[in-house]
Amino acid sequence: IEIWGNGKSKKDYLFLDDFILAINKILFSKTHTNDAIFNIASGKTHSINEIIRLIETTTKKKINIVYGKRKKFDVDNISINNALFSKTYNWHPKTDIGNGIKQIYNLMKK
Fold first, then answer.
1. Of 2, 19, 24, 54, which shows the fewest CB atoms inside 10 Å?
2. Tens of pLDDT, residues 70-93
3. Nearest CA among 65, 64, 51 for reference residue 105
4. CA 87 from centre of chain
């Protein structure tokens, strides 16, 4: 796998099931927030290197990594604050990144 840059930049990753639950909170809520802008996020950051280690641990397979040149359009770190959405809709992500990777791996094994 080729990684652009050194793999240390951190970004916020959200498990798709958690995103769907958040959207359901909006669709089926009696709360009306016509003018509000919300972030839906995990609120935790992880580097690509961390994610690769989690995948290697889950699959018990070594991933061959080639570090390439960093792309100009890539942002080093992205941390998203989801406090307003969490408070307004009483929502919190349920699946941490490690468990999300395990769930996806188990589905792929079937």
1. 2
2. 888 888 888 999 999 999 999 999
3. 51
4. 20
